[in-house]
Amino acid sequence: MSQLVFATSNAHKTEEVAAILGGDWQVEDLRAHPSVTLDEETGDTFEANAIIKAVSGSRAVPGLLVLADDSGLEVDALGGAPGVRSARYAGDNANAADNRAKLKTELAKLPQDGPFPGRFQCCMVLARDGVVLHVTQSSVEGRLLTQEEGAGGFGYDALFIPEGFTETFGVLPAETKNQLSHRARALAAMKEQLASLA
Ligand code: IMP
């Protein structure tokens, strides 16, 4: 089994990445490396922020392969918000429920009725010793509801219905989300590179 450090403390993301990669990789996140601190996400794009996490994270664990993900939700009727601010939409200390509440409030102000077209975006960056090895980006299109449906997943999942489905990521099984999500697609594009480094 090859070791991969995933530069996040978000247990939900780690669970998804471990499930998507399968048994060949031992995925550890920053909970297993508590001394690692990532540089601040000051970028304006998912790619810039994923690079910041991958480069700073990999400098802190010399010799290890580090994967970083920067992801978020874009809603067309909100001009692409919350976008790169998805984790902090309702404020710097906001939790996922605060962010969903803020999104519902912003959607309710719109003149048109939902559901509202949007997408999840994910940029994945692989790095070692501060050097970027590979970058991938992918997305999943869908529609945003104004009421939450389902308790599965995390973040904005209960408000997002992926294209081709009638239920939110909060209702759909994790296996379904892990086949078609922005994270699954960005990781699929990374698999060849990972295999060559395993
Ligand atoms: P990051 O940790 O800076 O990449 O922030 C990502 C934020 O985007 C999360 O805190 C969630 O609010 C949102 N997000 C990203 N991916 C997902 C997902 O798969 N489901 C629901 N929300 C997500």
Could you name the key traits of this structure?
binds inosinic acid, Maf protein, globular, 30% helix, 6-stranded mixed sheet, alpha/beta
Mean pLDDT across residues: 97
CATH topology: Maf protein
H/I helix tally: 6
Largest beta sheet: strand ordering: 2-1-3-4-5-6
- Small molecules bound in the structure, each named once: inosinic acid
Instruction: Indicate the overall shape.
Output: globular
Helical content stands at: 25-40%
Q: Could you tell me the number of beta strands?
A: 6
Distance between the termini: 8 Å
The parts where pLDDT drops under 50 for at least 5 residues are none
Strand content: 25-35%
CATH architecture annotation name: Alpha-Beta Complex
Give a description of the structure.
- With 198 residues, this protein is α/β, with parallel strands linked by helices.
- The protein is 30% helix and 26% strand.
- It contains 6 helices and 6 strands.
- The protein has a 6-stranded mixed beta sheet with strand order 2-1-3-4-5-6.
- Helix 1 packs across helix 5 (182-188) and helix 4 crosses helix 5 (182-188).
- The chain is globular.
- The protein binds inosinic acid (IMP).
- Residues 10, 69-73, 86-87, 96, 99, 120, 153-157, 181, 183 line the site of inosinic acid.
